Structures are given as C-alpha cells and as structure tokens.
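Side project, low priority. Logging it here so it doesn't get lost.
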Amino acid sequence: MKAVVWHGIGDIRLDEVPEPTIQDPHDAIVHITRSAICGTDLHFVRGTMAPMVEGTILGHEAVGVVSQVGDAVRGFSPGDRVVINSTISCGACRYCRMGQTAQCDVANPNGPQAGTSFFGGPQSTGPVDGLQAEYVRVPWAQNTMHPLPENVSDEQAILLSDIFPTGWFGAELAGVRRGDVVVVFGAGIVGQFAAASAYKQGAGRVIVVDGHETRLAAALAQHCEVVDYNDEDPVQAILDLTNGIGADAVIDAVGVDAERPKRGPAAVSDEQAAAFDAEVQQVAPDASPDGFGEHQQWKPGDGPSQVAQWAVASVAKYGRIGIIGVYGPTAQSYPIGEAMNKNLTIRMGNCDHHSVTPPLIDMVAAGQFDPTALITEHEGIGSAIEAYEAFDRREPGWIKVELTELTELTA
C-alpha cells in the first residue's frame, strides 16, 4: 500500500509499505477513506519537533471503515464507519476515566510518564505509525475511534478527527465565558476552529491575528475582527480595540513555528532578531534555518516565542491563556515573569479527543455547524508530497488539505 513516510528532516516520501496487521487484541485495522495534512505534521519535517524515527508513517487525522478487530475490541465490528482520534487512549486508566484521555497512562509505549501518544509523531509519542495510508492499525481501538452517524459525511468527519476538537479544547483551556473578548493568534486551520469554538462557547467578540491575507479573509468570513501583524503592532491594536484593557482570553494556535513580523511597526529590532535566531537553534538544532532549495522548503519558524510574548502582553490582568499551538520539549523561552506580574492563568496541552469529540459529532450531525467550508484543498494521495510542500510554503489560500483517493493507487 502507499503511505507518506518520514525519512529525515526535509525528506518525506510516498512509499510502498506493508499493510498493517493486528498486533494486540485491542487493535483494529481501518481502511482509510479520508486523511489530511496538519500543521503539526510540518513540525516533524521541519525539525522543530524531534527526534523522529526514520520510517514512521505520518498523519494523525483519518476517517475510514473498520476491516478487522482484535479479540479484546468491544463495541466495533468490521464494516463500521469511524473517525479516528489523533490521540490514543485505553479507556480504563485513571486519566481516561476523568476524561483526560491525552494523558492516558497506558497508550504510550514509552511508559506512563511519557505523556501523550498520538499517530505519526516523534519517538516520545510511541512512535505509532500514522494515518496517511490506505490501511492503518489503531491501538486501543475501543477508545481511539468513534462511530459516525450516516448524516455526517467523510468530508465533515475528517475535521472531527483532530482540528475541530483541538480548536474547541483551546477555547476551553482559555476559559471562554459569555461576553468575553477573545483573541486567537494564528489564522491557520486550528485558529479558524478555535475562533468558531470561542463563538460557540459564548464569546462576545473574537479578534484573530495573523500575517497572511487569505487566512485573515477566512477569519473575516466568520465575522471575526482581524489584525495583520505585518501592518499593525498586534498588542497595541488589541489594546486599542479593548479600551486599553486587553483581551479576557487568548488562544495561542501557532506554537513553535511562529513567524516574526517582516515589516510594519511590530518588525523586530536587530537585538530581538538575534534572540529569536538563538531560539531557533535551541528549538531545532538539526534543522536548516534557511530551509532547503530556492523556495526555502521546510524552513522552521523564525520567531519561536513570538506568539507567547504577544499573548502575555495583550491579555488583560487576571486574564486567561490557552495554548494549543505545538511547542516541543526543546522550547524553553516564555515570558513567565510578565505573566506572573499580571496574575494570569495559563493552561496548555494536547486535546483530550475521546472526551471532547462526541458532542461535536452531534453538533455537526444536527446541522448546527458545518466545518467543510474551511477545507481549501482536496488532493489525491499520489499528490501528497507536492501538497505538503505547498502547505509548508504557506501558499495563498492553503488553509486545510484533505487527502482523498487513498485506495485508487493500490486497487
């Protein structure tokens, strides 16, 4: 079968690999009908989330049909149509019982203190082969999949695998309350769903900050107020929009691959640029700071702590920050002193997919929210590498890439 495989920083390939088999009684094998490319996948190729294990299949979003189940899997049968959670959880440990499934004590092969286990990630998360393939093995299948109602399409469901739940979780982390002014940093796909989720959870206003025009246009289509950090100082703009108070809640939907402003009043000084360059070296010592080739492919973000600094500066005193943008263990710069002096509450982490997702499936099934408008690209698995490259270059309009035709190549 064909699969997208990580071979090294800046080196991913569409390979022919063996089909997966049941390895544990709790496993299921799922025939994938939709997958997707996420910004998190780009971290692995850029080298800002490491170390990866060569040969790992990438991808952590998928919809499909169950083809086999292990002897210990209850509640699912071959033929069931499912959405697969990005994070893996057993359903029986103390964390799973509390709904904190991202910190399952059992799922991560590296042990209970290793943290989240998810598909297609670095060594610290398993590694577990990912979901950009024709068939996949789903460990702890009973708690890592959800059945799909007939009136939820594959195209809707692919956004319920990770992106919508993560955006919703970000708004929860930020403690969004009725009437809040919420700022979302990042207008990529996670930021778009964080903005939508903030509105659903009662926000009175949502302000979205980004530096890419087409992404800001998508946020504007959701009736968000938008700030281009290349034209305005985002912190000052947020203060101006809130009578000098700042936001009640901020969601960081960017993470370690943040970009610093290249022009305008927020453009960094030489001293700040040097500090950011040192951060890049610390965060991604094996990455190429200038990327690869004439297009600077797979270039890590050049402002790793930029959004962290803006978030702390733009939130009100006693405000709340939720971090869902990915920061790896090597990211160690955070304005903790400024945050403490403002009495801020800061929460972060990976989405508890198994407990967060079911109500969102119901919301989509009831017609209360249709996520599909935010899928901007539909690519066959045969074009996956080219799609990765365009997504990495932040081509205009490329917000979310759905991978289709996962079976035709090997039929």
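Brief comment: The first strand starts at residue 2 and ends at 8.
Revisit when time allows.
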